[in-house]
Amino acid sequence: NVVVLEKGVLELKGDFQVTNSWCTPTFYATIPHQTILTGDEVQIIQINEDNSQFGQLILKNKSEQGVSFNTYVKYEKLVNENSTIGYENGKTSGWTLDRDTIINGDINLAAGDLDLNGYELWVKGSFNQTGGNTTISDGQLIIDGNYTFTAGTFNMLNEKDYVLIKKNVWISNYYSKLINLKNGILEIQGD
Questions:
Q1: How far from 174 is each of 7, 77, 178, CA to CA, in Å?
Q2: Residue 23 needs a FRET pair 20 to 30 A away by CA distance; which of 32, 62, 97, 147 works?
Q3: How remote is the C-alpha of 23 from its chain's centroid?
Q4: Partners of 79 in beta bridges
């Protein structure tokens, strides 16, 4: 039987790894359950099983390297309390920003809703969108690398929306109708 964590708090100071097992999902939590990452060194999250998920994942890691997602990680809600986030060969689900956020390295949005919610998201690498929905929502998206769009939606609907892409943009022709640039400023410094 699958055990679902529906309530309570799981605080982790080390890494978190889920491997495939005969019972799927191996780890499954729903809101209001909280998993809090509070390590003093880099914490690596690796989930090698498609159906596992966190309920509310709270990042409180204060180390310079922060939290590294080495695989695709699903969660119902992500709360980042000023932790550095890295994505190493992994994909992520979207989340709603509740403060300015810096991503050290690349991000690969594969599912869910990424809502800037009036805040700044600074990606110090490239932003690859292979799914999910990105909505600027009066926020600022700064990408030091390239932006690649192959699926999902990308929405700039408000006057205060601002996106800066410092390198190149690649958009799949088939999905280009899913990019809604109705308002705001889109600045591209590359090709």
A1: 43, 30, 9
A2: 32
A3: 27
A4: 58
